[in-house]
Amino acid sequence: MTIVTAFKGTLVHCPSLGQLDVLEDRILLVDHQGFITYVGPADSKGSEEVLANIDIPITTIPSGGFLLPTFCDLHLHAPQFLFQGTGLHLPLMQWLDEYAFKSEESLDSQPELAKAVYVRLAERLRDAGTGAVLLFGTINNTANLILAEAMQTIGIRALVGKLSMDISSRPSYVEPSALSSIRSAEEFIDGCRDLVSSYEPHRRLIEPVITPRFVPTCSDELLQGLGKLARDKGVRIQSHLAEAHEEVQWVLSERHKDDIDVFDNFDLLTEKTVQAHCTFLDTDMLSRMASSCSAVAHCPLSNSYFSEKPFPLRESLDLGVPVGLGSDIAGGYSIDIMNSMRQAVAVSRIRDGTRKLSGGEQSLAIDWKEALYLATRGGATALGLSCGVFQVGAPFDAQCIELYRESDKGVGALDFFEPQSGITLGILEKWWCIGDERNRRGIWIQGQKLIV
Known about the structure:
Blueprint: E1 3-13, E2 21-31, E3 36-41, H1 45-52, E4 59-60, E5 65-69, E6 71-77, H2 92-109, H3 111-127, E7 130-136, H4 141-154, E8 157-164, H5 178-195, E9 206-212, H6 220-233, E10 236-241, H7 245-255, H8 259-265, E11 273-277, H9 283-292, E12 295-298, H10 300-306, H11 313-319, E13 323-325, H12 337-358, H13 368-382, E14 398-402, E15 404-405, E16 409-410, H14 425-434, E17 440-445, E18 448-449
Parallel strand pairs: 1-4, 6-7, 7-8, 8-9, 9-10, 10-11, 11-12, 12-13
Antiparallel strand pairs: 1-2, 2-3, 5-14, 14-17, 15-16, 17-18
Helix pairs in contact: 2-3, 3-4, 4-5, 5-6, 12-13
């Protein structure tokens, strides 16, 4: 084992829901494969011993800064980055027809445009501190491999989904049959794995994902085939579940059952599944999600636009449902998971106000520390990743955040009017509320510092 990077300074992480640790004056070592090999107090005997046995410079984090695990985005439609921030005046199904399908079809037919969009998307994710992302792609394998390559090249962990849909309201944007769609999904899985096969295992940042768009665009034959393919290939699954009243009613009318039952019937509700939105799941359905260990990508901003109900976040967490946060570009207009954290807390506070007025006893609110867990360790756990925490054996996926310089000079949007010392919960909350990209001084994935 060769130590290639050493840090000294404050570490901040959330090992579990409701727990936020501020670890001051720590030594952290990273080996040549990008894994954390040591974490301990700088003045401990253990630290003295490990430092005596290495001959590399130590990177010191200034007193006004800290290391934090990178963010995880559990739901992002990569081709929709093309029209981010537009069309949000429409209801969901009309928005899909007029904006989403068009953009996806456009990138499928223009590889150079796809490359430009996806490289810029990867750069934006890096700049926002997102180290891992679960992506919806398109129905075209060439475009999806361009997406995967862009993420690997920039250095973002990406679970990339080739869209599967043999039903569509747009005749020019649909796969010809269930069998064709299943074959294409299998080809993408193999192609995605081939793309990174030349890298050492610890440098492979890309994984393929089975991605039925949602029940209204997938026949039973397609869903059955995708469930089998997921088992045979050992890959993860993502889709949309119970996301809007119109969609839920359509499934009930056409399939005569809830969409959670449709997914479950075809073995698409497993411990490797992430379902976006889930705003119309009742308590029994959420309990089924917990029992199956299926995760939820909570997208508070896009839910506000396209769902008539907010996601029952507090209840889901209390039931043990794995939950992370999603930007849902372009149903959500912000790629920054910091905004998703803030929106998750705001929506939960509104729900809790309604609970108080109706006489309910159990709080429905979450706080900023719980939101930070969802954005880091919670999201990583939902994706089956071991990052999101500073512990021996975990990959070093981290961002350096700077809050102030010279004791009282705030960085970016942060202002301080008296001298600061160290990293306190108070100034962490201030950063959580109003911090931005100007506070980010570096980002590392699997021990590699990304080039900005």
